Queue: 2 jobs
Job 1
Amino acid sequence: VTAGIGSVESPEDKSLGGLLPPGFDESSCLSRYQAALYRKASPHKPSPFLVEKLRRYEALHRKCGPNTELYNRSIQQLESDHSTGPMECNYVVWIPHYGLGNRVMSIVSGFLYALLNDKVLLIHVDQDMEDLFCEPFPDTSWVLPKDFPIENLGEFEGDATLSYGKLIRDKIINNDMRFATKVTLPAYQMLRKIPWLLLRTDEYFVPSLFLVDEYAEDLQQLFPERTTVFHHLVRYLFHPTNTVWGYVMRYYQGYLAKADERIGIQIRIFPLVPIPFETMLNQIINCTLSQHILPAIDPQEPAAAPSNAAKVKAVLVTNLNSGYHDRLRDMYYEHSTTTGEVITVHQPSHEKQQYTDQRSHNVKAWSEITLLSFSDVLVTTAWSTFGYVAQGLGGLKPWILPRHPRPGVACVQAVSTEACFHAPPDYDCKARKGGADLSAVAPFVRHCEDVERYKHSI
Ligand code: GDP
């Protein structure tokens, strides 16, 4: 990880070093310029090339965005079903898949793909995602209009007739990436010319873009600090709407603002990889104590009262259930600490289950991700995209609780704020063989520290 290149953004730098565009009405999305005031200052400055590229993208989006003349023309062409030739405006239509964290991951990836290919990203917002995210591009919209002619977007699967893989399997495009019309194009160039590309994924596939030679130069200029891709793009794109910001601020001001330090603990138990409650609790306590994130409790009775000058650490726990919060709170309520610090423990919600199709549930999830991003120190659960979003927004290198607890390893610290690609390809294109470990193909693509072998980060 190359640390910051010299300049530190101050909280007053409202544009985050030029990342955020000018021209927004601030009151329409208060979080856009205010969120940075609650986060640790980022040591990472966006490169001038990235800033310039984003301004050019915004201009393209304004030109091609919903209900412009060029958009209407592209829609007509899509409806006419005649030509697959390139248009002046080419689009990536993002289709939601799985939970909120997964959605953010895949939107960021789709956006970088669009940026590298001069395409325009539009997102399909169902009622469950309404009023969560502010518009990221000024004077236009990234929301796919409701009258988009292709219906049932949620039903697109990998085996859909017009999916890229199916087109190859059915030899509409052959394995050498030739159109049936005999036009030879490398895969990336061919996809680049397709005017409407529908993207349905829950993955952070940015690391695989680093494996495509044709993008190498642009990526190098856009992100001279490679491990800041997610940090910059997630802060550029994702701003809670005023509705969500209300939740965030009510909770923050009520429970967290006055503490001397804020610790976020994100606990995610995956239904398919259950971890016994006591095992996970021990893991959390071992991690926070051994890394000096939280103090040990003093076994002496009666416990001494804290001094008036005692430092207060506020712990924000997020989980679908309240058990971990309750046990941590009891621990610090019933005992004093060996350091004399006072530890308060808070959890905004315990929704019991994932209800991704319910908007009110997603509002809480997004509020909690945002609150976690305000942490001074973050502890997350391995493999969880919910935690990745918080770490990216906060520019934090979290302490990761393993998904498969091992004795002696309570947690490991992430080496960067980058998110993990859970489903990397294992085909080495140059060697033309499968079963490859891609971290051996590109030196800066490496194994994620929070999952098993062969998952890649950058
Ligand atoms: P992942 O499954 O951990 O990678 O994260 P996702 O965000 O993609 O999906 C999990 C979903 O479950 C979230 O989006 C929420 O809907 C819900 N969820 C999981 N953990 C929490 C939590 O701590 N708080 C809240 N409010 N919702 C949660």
Job 2
Amino acid sequence: ARVPVPLSDVAPAGDAGRPGAPSAASVRGLTRRFGDRAVLDGLDLTIAPGEFVALLGRSGSGKSTLLRALAGLDEEVDGDIEVDGSVAVAFQEPRLVPWKRVRDNLTLGLDVPGPAARADAALAEVGLTERAGAWPLTLSGGEAQRASLARALVREPRLLLLDEPFSALDALTRITVHRLVLDLWAAHGPAVLLVTHDVDEALTLADRILVLDGGRVAHSWTVTARRPRHRDHHDLLALRTAL
Ligand code: ADP
Ligand code: MG
């Protein structure tokens, strides 16, 4: 994979897994065939609790296939997948159900007590309180993406899967949603697996950068010289004030 990660900013890393250590996700020998082609081919991957991992790779390298498998949305995979706690996923297109109001989109299929109150709390966190009763088609792109994040959040995931959630957004909205993701990550502490094509984005957000190639994790780097990032709430507030 020829992904131009600046090598001065990263160090080679192994798989984060140590035998017996807790993990948010542990994948062994994951294989997914379409016809006779193995898009995922014996893939191993461990994600530590609370770790923020960016996943790069060419179009068609199997990134979305991997996320669908981790989310339990694909029954045709072979291999072992262990996930600690709940998993939520936000896709590139927010995929809101158009005939359900925003609040009801968040609680679709959610089997918990007091779902509406939880939905409202999540909407408040992403700054969408006023849009709770709106129809999805009336939302802007950024609002729809925030609603999609709120829908993930309401499930209180220990593993949050983000499949290119920023790529359809304009540059300014992207910054807002970026910051929101960091904010949610800092506040809730899930492990995150973020698919992105943007190396700068990966270096800004992630602890570790993976490259998927040939159906496996072909490269794994720890980010050493991170772009300014703000896991700490205090820093986040300072950043907000500055922008
Ligand atoms: P990425 O997200 O990295 O761009 P995908 O995981 O979407 O790649 O797809 C990986 C490969 O698997 C592509 O070649 C794609 O055409 C193929 N693929 C994905 N889903 C299906 C499917 N349901 N049926 C057949 N081929 C598929
Ligand atoms: Mg994809």
